[in-house]
Amino acid sequence: MDQTENNTSHLNGTHSEGLMKKRQDYLEWPEYFMAVAFLSAQRSKDPNSQVGACIVNQENKIVGIGYNGMPNGCDDDLLPWSRSADNKLDTKYPYVCHAELNAIMNKNSADVKGCTMYVALFPCNECAKLIIQAGIKDVIYLSDKYHDSPEMTASRRLLNLAGVAYKQFEPKQSRIVIDFSSINHSGMNRVNCLEGLQSP
Ligand SMILES: [Zn+2]
């Protein structure tokens, strides 16, 4: 809003394009990477839990993305998605791959040593093992809702021993909206294009 005013006042000045201030409300890196993890989670078929993970190297380049799902080639219509059943084989747990596993396995770099993982949920003990063995050095998580479970307790124990740092993410905004139509009418883009649009 004052952004638009700023830009407008610049436009009213003399040949202002080069003087226009850069946008101030752009997504910062941590917000961006966590949002990528959350967007990826929207691919999950799990009816109860959608978790995404995004691995970033020291140059702020994304080297792996994953979400929770059944293993490749295993028809996810033929495997159970329930959380509880008389027989554990009728729950999802023996089959599902967590987001962290998929993000590591999906890496598009030779390895993920020294990388940071952004993940929606604090990693379980099985994922902690993978994170440690993969050489990931930092974990940024959003929710820690299973903090008191044995899986998370064991996970913290392993991460602590291995020297993997973990930190809860505190988002600056509670939601990030992706609006496909904004490309046609966003304030910033419109202001940017104003001069070009005046001639035709
Ligand atoms: Zn896990």
UniProtKB/TrEMBL annotation:
<dbReference type="GO" id="GO:0009165">
    <property type="term" value="P:nucleotide biosynthetic process"/>
</dbReference>
<protein>
    <recommendedName>
        <fullName>Deoxycytidylate deaminase</fullName>
        <ecNumber>3.5.4.12</ecNumber>
    </recommendedName>
</protein>
<dbReference type="Pfam" id="PF00383">
    <property type="entry name" value="dCMP_cyt_deam_1"/>
</dbReference>
<dbReference type="GO" id="GO:0004132">
    <property type="term" value="F:dCMP deaminase activity"/>
</dbReference>
<keyword id="KW-0378">Hydrolase</keyword>
<dbReference type="GO" id="GO:0005737">
    <property type="term" value="C:cytoplasm"/>
</dbReference>
<dbReference type="InterPro" id="IPR002125">
    <property type="entry name" value="CMP_dCMP_dom"/>
</dbReference>
<dbReference type="InterPro" id="IPR016192">
    <property type="entry name" value="APOBEC/CMP_deaminase_Zn-bd"/>
</dbReference>
<dbReference type="InterPro" id="IPR035105">
    <property type="entry name" value="Deoxycytidylate_deaminase_dom"/>
</dbReference>
<dbReference type="InterPro" id="IPR016193">
    <property type="entry name" value="Cytidine_deaminase-like"/>
</dbReference>
<comment type="function">
    <text>Catalyzes the deamination of dCMP to dUMP, providing the nucleoside monophosphate substrate for the thymidylate synthase/TYMS. Also, part of a nucleotide salvage pathway that eliminates epigenetically modified 5-hydroxymethyl-dCMP (hmdCMP) in a two-step process entailing deamination to cytotoxic 5-hydroxymethyl-dUMP (hmdUMP), followed by its hydrolysis into 5-hydroxymethyluracil (hmU) and 2-deoxy-D-ribose 5-phosphate (deoxyribosephosphate). Catalyzes the first step in that pathway, the deamination of 5-hydroxymethyl-dCMP (hmdCMP).</text>
</comment>
<keyword id="KW-0545">Nucleotide biosynthesis</keyword>
<comment type="similarity">
    <text>Belongs to the cytidine and deoxycytidylate deaminase family.</text>
</comment>
<keyword id="KW-0479">Metal-binding</keyword>
<dbReference type="GO" id="GO:0008270">
    <property type="term" value="F:zinc ion binding"/>
</dbReference>
<dbReference type="InterPro" id="IPR015517">
    <property type="entry name" value="dCMP_deaminase-rel"/>
</dbReference>
<feature type="domain" description="CMP/dCMP-type deaminase">
    <location>
        <begin position="28"/>
        <end position="159"/>
    </location>
</feature>
<keyword id="KW-0862">Zinc</keyword>
